[in-house]
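Complex record, two chains
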Amino acid sequence: MGIAGAGLFGNETSATLAAFVEQTGITFPVLRGDASYFDYANPDGAISPFPLDVIIDREGRIRYLRHEFDGDAMTSEIERLLAE
Amino acid sequence: MASSPRSRASLVAVTGLLALATCQDEGLPPCNAPHGDCPVASTETFVDPLVHVGRAAGPTFIEIVDVVTHGDLVLACTGTKGLTIWDASGDGAPRLLSEKIGPTHQGLANGSFPRCQHVSVDPTGTRVVITNRGDEIQPTPWLWVYDISDPRSPDDIGGWTDLSSIEGVVYNDGLVYAALHGTGVLVYRVTEAGGVDIQGGYKDEFSDAWQPALAGNHLYVAEGATGLRIYDVESGDPELLSTLPLPGSSRDVIVEGDRAYVADSAGMAIVDISDPRDPQLLSQIDSDGTSLALAMGADDTVVMAEWDQVRGYDVSDPTAVETVFAETVPTDDEFSRVLAIDADRDRRRVYAGEWRGLQVFDHVSGGHGPDISITPNVLQYGLLTGGESDSRVVVVRNRGDVPLTVHDVVGGPGVTVDTECFQVPPGGATAIEVTLQVNDHDQVDTGLKFCSDDPDESEHVVSLSANVPGLGVGDEVPAFALQDLDGNTWSTEQLRGNIAVLAYFATF
């Protein structure tokens, strides 16, 4: 399918992240992030940098950017990219 | 309820860093009256099945994470105010009786952010137990008991900190049944003097206890990826009777008669528990976002806290569940999350706890009609140069029980649509192409208004934006090379050639 998922956290400790991942049953790779999320645009006027969902295409271009989770919109964007 | 990749409940540490949302309705032309070739709307006067009555607390961030009704009282666990107690005997929004209830004077709770995460009221209504799980903001997990005989002035009975990652609790007949994630379930007896005796507990390698519900001698516990577990607690020492794996991650459970209803992040599982040693999955209802909490409302309706909505499902036939209502909570043009829910069946009230207040709804008997739902609610057009145009698609759904008539769609400057009026059957959906043309490189913030016969959302506005500062659609994602929890390095270079989803979130 060519899809990779990753979660990128803020500056939190490894122990906190590990406990959180175990509690929530996350199965995709979880990376400890830096402050790069502040570089993203805020087109939906969110009050916080989190949550933020980004879909990037095979060339590394941003094709989807939302601070609000929208499963339908993400699914349709992924299907569109898979068909390209 | 607690944070999760999709609940992402607690954002106080970063709130206010970015600009607040603006209302995109300003400046949009008014809706035109139904005209010419458009489908004719029903002449029936509809009343929405869920009517917003008002909001207690807010709009300042308060982060309500658990709500319980008891008689005339509503008790809400909050981040910024600890436990709050409200008088809900009146017709409008509840009145505040007391707040900032939590072990702040013991130094266990942060005075500016006491963070009460779960609350349970003893059936007598005189005592209450509250919990805090323990995280960066409140490092010490605690469980505290209060006498609320006078709800204006609760008395501190006592509490305990020798707990590990405590989540939900049930308080009944002097016993506290506690869910402690990987530490399993524990049963405490609270003495009159405020002491505590451990009665028993259960833990194994699959324990991931989030929220318990007590019915008779059985304790039903939503246990994360493990699913629903049922314990016999007659002796006070829990004996595991059964484990039923469920989709998603089980977060909340309610019990009514021979059925358990489990909020399992994917939606709701309905389980036949007539034989607690052999529970059977009757049906699974998928919701669009994340289901975090459930309550039993009037007319066999299970109400659900679901992302930014309050959902209602008629479960009178568990194999043919029907949606009764699906309402997005009002948010003053700012984002919100519904994290907690409870219902007062006698008053036909629904209480939804969210980031910015305690939202109160009437569940209207016989209410029905068309119900508009549009996704996405925000359309981004990335970077457009002068004279350039681009198109996006929105899907208009009808979650109601009669046809939805959209008699006009009006947009801001440069916004056009391929269909200006249409009808959507109950349960149906229509895709609308929305084109934005810009005159220059300037930032565009505008909107598109759908004018319909939805009884409480006759004008629904979708936001449109283009040329927003910062990285946006069409830009290259910034290069990164980060390690995962196993020490493996992931980089943008490695992801090249793949479609990747990056979900930024936080544990707090």
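Note: Helices of chain A lie at 14-24, 71-83.
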